[in-house]
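User: Can you predict the 3D structure for this chain?
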Amino acid sequence: MVPKRTAMTSVDRAWLRMDTAENPMMISGVLILEHPISIKRLKHTLEERFLKYHRFRQRVVEKGDRAYWQDDTLFDLDNHLHRIALPGKAGKEELQALASDLNSTSLDFRRPLWQMHYIENYQEGAALLIRIHHCIADGISLARVLMSLTDRTPEPKLKKFAGLRKSVKPEGRATSRFLHRLVDSGQAGWQQASLFLASVRHDPNYPLKLAATAGGIAMDLVKLGFAPAEPDTSLKRQLVGRKKVGWAEPLVLAEVKQCAKILGGTVNDVLLCVATGALSRHFAEQQQPVPDCGIRVAVPFNLRPLDQPIDTLGNRFGMVLVNLPIEVLDPIMCFRQVRENMNRLKRSYQAQVTFSLLDLFGRGPDVIERRALELLSNKASAVLTNVPGPRYAVYLAGSKLIQPMFWVPQSGNIGIGMSIFSYADTVQFGITVDKGIPAEPEAVMRYFQESFQALYQAALAEEQDTDIRHAS
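Assistant: Here is the predicted structure, written as structure tokens:
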């Protein structure tokens, strides 16, 4: 019996083909647990909540220029969930070393592209290290999927599934598939035409607004293509494929929000400013010249509604290039510059443009995608993600989740990935660095903490000055 197979979308295929020895396209995570958990209960949770997404039971099959998801007829959870222990009185350093080892290793393409390692003997509890290939889904979606494994209380009421939800449609004959696509395209075209006419009736200026939008998209495409390459700094070095992973002690979310309120910005503005300060301190400590124009980071921009459940996997996000003014040393001035840069990006179509480019690259020959990827990756020094998590503490298989961290992969010649994840009134910050780049994760973590304290104290001082002026 031939296993079921479905064609991979062009965007997911683009991420599949980005995989290199230097940059495996894996989204990884570390979930630190307060107490050890039962492997039997963990398996039950995975079978009930994780494997309901049929994609995790499928492997990738490539035929010429096409890629497919094909059911793994030999699927066994034990091939993907591994149980190991750290030696002696293992602490953060040992867990970071293990995470670095695994993040430097590619996944097995003979099986579905994900793995989990349950790690015993970590401090008083345990940890779960997760690796999932980017072609399965984007980081924001996967973070939400992994958080769906957790509960608000230690003892949830687990229900047995009568069967797994299937997200794969039977392939059918080629003629049948063609007719279905033709009908779908016709229906989509008719719906778009009806929507357009309704919009014109509601607003006679709609065609002009549509043309303006199209012009804006075209302009952002031109800007992206002609943006200058990143300056030659120590952050842009030849990659070796060996990763170094680290994470900081969490920030207090209430303090981050207070800082944002005082300065008239968003939490995201504060965190980007703090990351800017951390990189600025890195250049200063290494006695390296700071580029006058700052540096750019590629920031994933979610295109999937956050208020809706994840029904299907896949990649639904674009990338925006954010300028970090690392040359601005004053924390308040740096914040204002970051805020201005972010407000400008919010009015652009850069995320939609990059998503469309990924769709286009995924449809074309491999050599074109490689050239385009090289061109785009030359325009950023790092990847920075900011993903919202649960606002309350959650439990995995009965054990409280103390600290979660996630990292997205870096593509092309980018060798640094910074990750921000909010959880239970805290903000987690982590980094992964290629060994070819002279930057130590632990040092950057320290700079991140120092940068936030400098901005927070400056914000409090500014608030006090404002109160004094108003009082007088």
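Residues 160-193, 206-226 have pLDDT under 50 and may be disordered. The radius of gyration is 23 Å.
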